[in-house]
Amino acid sequence: MSRRRTTSPPRTRENSDVTARQQFYWRGLHVPFIAPWSEERTLPHPVVERPRSEGAGIGYADEFSRADRRHDVLWVRRPVLRGRGTPDLAAVHPLRQRQAMSHMLCQVCGESTFNEDFGRWGERHLIIARAVEGRPLREGERTTTPPVCRPCAVEAAEACPHLRKGHVAALVKRTQPWGVAGIVYDPRTLLPIPPENPKEPLAEVAFEDPVIRWTLAARDVVTLHGCTPVDLSELAALSVAV
Ligand SMILES: [Zn+2]
Question: How far apart are CA 73 and CA 80, in angstroms?
């Protein structure tokens, strides 16, 4: 992302204390909260078949149920070492994406989006996404994109190459858990099933779909409700003026 107001000064690795609210900068860029760092590499953890009350599915041989599952779905294991090494601004850390989605944290700064703007906007959150054929975000639309606070949205729209090509923004009344995006394993071979589209390696699987027992989750997927499309620049001007 880019230069922004600095509520906290740029940190170095030496003096950084890894917390959700700390801001990191890399070569002048604001590193999003959900971006992974090089020392947060996924370690190989082979999956095994595990019998479960609702039917067989995948699990880890050394599974710790509280840490490895959420809503009974197996999640990827990933170290949480934010700020260590170099960031990958284009990628997503699965567990911080989940944290941001669960608690409605801004995907860029990691602060809660239950903030002053939330009240000012009629208790709604701002969601910004890359434009798909120019259409607005629709009611009930699925997304893996956590909300964003207003200053970060303005910054991202200017700085993020993906968003600069075109973005859509909406104020959203609520999000509803829908399922996960992840890697689906073949029950016979216990090997990942290749995605139909190599550019989209993660398959979206609903909680009620039995396939979810064979899915290694890497993103929370929610649906958006009470969507009102907004123009980001108008929203920013209006919010400052109030
Ligand atoms: Zn923010």
Answer: 19
Measure 235 CA to ligand 1 centroid, in angstroms.
15
Q: Which residues pair with 8 in a beta bridge?
A: none
Cα distances (angstroms) measured from residue 107 to each of 3, 140, 150, 232, 241: 16, 20, 11, 16, 25
In this structure, are residues 160 and 1 in contact, taking their beta carbons and an 8 Å threshold?
A: yes
Dump pLDDT digits (tens) for 85-144. Answer: 999 998 999 999 999 999 999 999 999 999 999 999 999 999 988 777 668 888 999 999
What does the CA dihedral 95, 221, 55, 200 come to, rounded to 10 degrees?
-90
Find where tokens 């400052």 sit.
Answer: 240
The CA 140 to ligand 1 mean position distance, Å, reads: 24
Going from the Cα of 16 to the center of ligand 1, the distance in angstroms, rounded, reads 19
Instruction: Please give the model's pTM, rounded to 2 decimal places.
Output: 0.85
What's the 150 CA to ligand 1 centre distance in angstroms? 7
Q: With CA atoms as reference, report the closest residue to 217 among 79, 36, 99, 70.
A: 70
CA of 21 to the centre of ligand 1 (A): 10
Instruction: State the distance from the centre of ligand 1 to the C-alpha of 114, rounded, in angstroms.
Output: 11
Alpha helices (H) along the chain: 65-68, 94-103, 116-120, 150-159, 161-164, 232-241
How far, in Å, is the centroid of ligand 1 from the Cα of 113? 8
CA 77–ligand 1 middle distance (angstroms): 26
